[in-house]
UniProtKB/TrEMBL annotation:
It is a multi-pass membrane protein. Coiled coil: none annotated. GO terms for cellular component: plasma membrane. It is found in: Cell membrane. Keywords: Cell membrane, Membrane, Transmembrane, Transmembrane helix. Residues 61-81 are annotated as: Disordered. The keyword Cell cycle does not apply. This is FtsX-like permease family protein. Residues 274-394, 736-851 form the ABC3 transporter permease C-terminal domain. It comes from Streptomyces phyllanthi. The chain crosses the membrane at residues 269-295, 318-342, 362-386, 407-432, 452-478, 499-522, 732-757, 782-804, 824-845.
Amino acid sequence: MTVMKTSLRNFFAHKGRMALSAIAVLLSVAFVTGTLVFTDTMGTTFDKLFAATASDVTVSAKGASDTGETRADNGRPPVMPESVLGTVRGTDGVKSAEGTVFSTSVTVVDADKDSLSPTSGAPTIVGNWNANDARTMKISSGNAPRGPDQIMVDADTADKHHLKLGDEIGVITAVGTHRSKISGIADFQVTNPGAAIFYFDTKTAQEALVGETGVYTNVNVTAASGFSDAQVKKNVASALDKGYQVQTAKEVADANAKDVGEFMGVMKYAMLGFAGIAFLVGIFLIINTFSMLVAQRTREIGLMRAIGSSRKQVNRSVLAEALLLGVFGSVLGVGAGVGLAIGLMKLMGATGMNLSTDDLTVAWTTPVVGLVLGVVVTVLAAYLPARRAGKVSPMAALRDSGAPVDARAGVVRAVLGLVLTGAGGFALYLAAQADKAKEGSMWLGGGVVLSLIGFVVIGPLLAGGVVRVLGAAVLRIFGPVGRMAERNALRNPRRTGATGAALMIGLALVACLSVVGSSMVASATDQLDKTVGTDFIIQSDTGQLITPQAVQAVKSAEGLKGVTEYKWTEADFTTPDGETLKKTAITAADPSYATDLATETVAGNLKDAYRPDSMSVHEEFAKDHGISLGSKISVAFQGGSTARLTVRAITSSDVVIDQGAMYTAIDTMAKYVPADRMPLDTLVFASAKEGQEAAAYTSLKAALDDYPQYKVRDQTDYKEALKDQIGQLLNMIYGLLALAIIVAILGVVNTLALSVVERTREIGLMRAIGLSRRQLRRMIRLESVVIALFGALLGLGLGMGWGATAQQLLALEGLKVLDIPWPTITGVFLGSAFVGLFAALVPAFRAGRMNVLNAIATE
């Protein structure tokens, strides 16, 4: 009880000094809690949606996925004949059955030819208005579609794009473009996660999406009273031919939830990983806080020991303070986490994914995880300072106002740090020398962890040398004030090392990812320059396949020398060694693709792969299956027959563009795949006539004006798009890393604030002998700057080493160019100086306001 009273007294006596550590705990716990609440809420939203929209039993066409997905590589959804609907209606246990047709392989545009598809990645769904949809959608204005010139739109899409009754809508599919006017607007009765939904009447939907009437993609079944969904499923499955997919409402909901769950799982654990980094950085802040508090209370601890307190009691007293800090910060963090989740939901709403706060889900495990994690991390971080406090002898503490320095521990720390850093460097060397990316990635992971821990441990040893160098380069120009700032940073290398290490972690990851991202762009650009011989690349950024009508529009453009179509599908391969490989990718292109992309071959000529009944394979595939030139491979095309193709070329596996692709001619594929089953183009390439590049570029854009889902890019555009894509990914990662950097900044602020308190008498004496307030503030700011630059220098150096090693592994996958983004590295380094200045604002201001006489009188 005495220990707890002492801990409470000390905690509240130093609550101002604890505040920044509590904020660090709060932020880290909030990020974890917010992530869990946000992903759980997304799960609840989708679960409710899937449960509400699924009929008792659903029959899907042959070839549909487990979720009833209607997307197909030929652009048309798989369908079933109308007779299936009649069979289902006559099955025992079926109360009613309704045929539906819908597709997600669509693009919808307004009268100005602007896309109405979501930008959040959610699907665009076009189907027929049916009784099942009427359960979850309510017509709020107008009426349901009643003919080929009418279409209904969901209210969210209408609001977002300012659509109203009578506006013209164009639906672009593989069949063609169907234009209608908005006849009605329907509101969701459940939360819409962001999909754009449009409804035709049944006949119009069949004609616009499939190109024929009398077919359906699904049959929705309502079970009769007294029959379970499972019984109806069994009866319906028995009545139909094999191949049709029959699922209960729960099975459909579970299949959809599994698909969404995989995506949310990746997002959840990625965000938790960044929260873990923030916790790691927060550990240094907490260690520094308690180390400095213990140092400032050395005399007090000595008195406690002198009047009978044991080492364990002193230790427990410090740990109890840490427990209070952890509980306080974690409780606030849990509350802030719920607020963060709501903020993320609002942010997602701005991008088009609607998540209702009515579905806010806070599982009982979420606050428990946040509280336990925050408290455990805080107490563990305070253990070393607490142990150090317990080892202070009464006499030594009463003689000295500062904590005793354990020289032996410093030597052990330096040796351990050197060993860990050396082991990490050696692991990185082995990773760079690896022959296989998988093997090298294991060494890379080990090297990153060991070198990071090594730099953290050896930080105090490095601080002495690095701070002196930085002092000579940055601080000496400020005269005596700069030299005092340098000495202050060197006064306690352990503290400087720990403070710099907190900033080092976040900046090391920033530097590593910058090097990897820049190298990827440079490698891809280099490959484009060396291998791509075409002038223009036409594709969809959202993965939409290119419709035949759009391909014809490309071919009609003026100034073109040639157009190359490029298709992709899956087939079952039976190789010469007798192995059958299911769903193996095969690319079909026009023969001109051999010159559009100058892919390196290790045997044969790639042009020969486009001869009748011929193909190419890549080098690793050939080695794995004993394939050489002239070998025969049985290729069973999806939706078609089996071909015996002769291998005419073996391409290098050491490329970036089309790595691992196996080619055949479109004419060869068309020989074995019916015309209505042929996949649509993934890409289209176009080459301009000599000297007509600019005119052809303009003509292509004009030709595709009716198809806004497709982009026309020349090689410069393509490089910029690639750079932008990687840049957007890196910016998102940097945004998540910002949490760790913010916590590190709090660490610098806390270190300076406690250091000012620790040096109160010293500051008073300096002021008494003539140091002005302005000089004092500058001294503290310069000390902060040099600590921040120390952390930045270590972090950027370490991160560039990691990035260069990672690039060596990527070189095994064809990304051979190492590119150090010096502008980014330099900007981050200089930005660290501003971070140091910012962190010192409050401590410097408080130091400048000290009363000189009171400061001198401080014990």
